[in-house]
Amino acid sequence: MVVAALVQGAGGDPMGAALSLSVPAKYKRLIEDAGNTCPEVTPNLLAALLKQESGFIPGRRSRAGAEGIAQFKPSTWETRGIDGNGDGRRDVWDPEDAIPSAAKHLCDIVKEVKDVPGNKQDNMLAAYNAGSGAVQKYGGVPPYRETQNYVRSISALADVPSGGKMTTTEQAATAINTASGELGTPYSWGGGNASGRSTGSCCSPNGSSGASINGFDCSGLTLYAYAQAGITLPRTAAQQYAASEPVKPGQKRPGDLVFYGSSPTSIHHVAIYVGSGYMIEAPRPGTSVRFSPIDSMSDLYAFARPIRHTNKEI
Known about the structure:
Blueprint: H1 25-34, H2 43-54, H3 74-80, H4 95-112, H5 120-130, H6 132-138, H7 145-158, E1 165-166, H8 169-180, E2 198-199, E3 214-215, H9 218-227, H10 237-242, E4 244-247, E5 257-260, E6 269-275, E7 278-281, E8 290-293, E9 300-308
Antiparallel strand pairs: 1-9, 2-3, 4-9, 5-6, 5-9, 6-7, 7-8
Helix pairs in contact: 1-2, 1-4, 2-7, 4-5, 5-6, 5-7, 8-9
């Protein structure tokens, strides 16, 4: 996973960091200003975090009770929220307060976990999601699946270079044709890369190993299919969602990626939409690459379209 473009405190000039991610125009200046609060936070990183947390929706409230565009829990807001616009109020629902507060909170977290070994950016993001205490307890990113996906997804999204364009219909067709050529290939946990099928690794959440199986897992198949169309995708399903552009269900087209989960950080499956309500996928251990109805899983989360950039591994 490439992270050099995210945190420039180790030698670059963070004050010169530019915001290259696409964000709503009304929040661009806020993010650019707040994204220079400390060397460890860049505008792109802050934008990626806000997209992951709320999709830039200031009125969002999570099932866990997190609130606003930066998804502060009330107890955290009470101690970390600031009056960013100087109107005399600290309002978690006001992006002019919440966005600067998120940046300051990240900077405070950096100090809290500064002695924890490992990648400082990963530790910072993990602590934003799971708390500084958990990062300190485990000596780095804690072994929580949601937190690990959270860190990977934000890192992948923040490192997406500027100037990207969504895939063409020709590239989508190439991806579909490539994946279709693998029909019947066995599922292999951790299997598949830009060059094609490969042996996987151990082990899936239910204990299945791909170490002796030459094939693909779900994101390995999509990575390979789009690599043949000249488009580089990150390795995991959650990262692929973060690096793609969501499209409304009514605007989906063949070649779009189909994601399953309950939130961006809990995405657990990805497939390629082929039209007429079907997708091509590497479903799960014990199965093979096949066509399936998109409603064959109950937690369809989103459709998203891969973005073309200069070919580089994320």
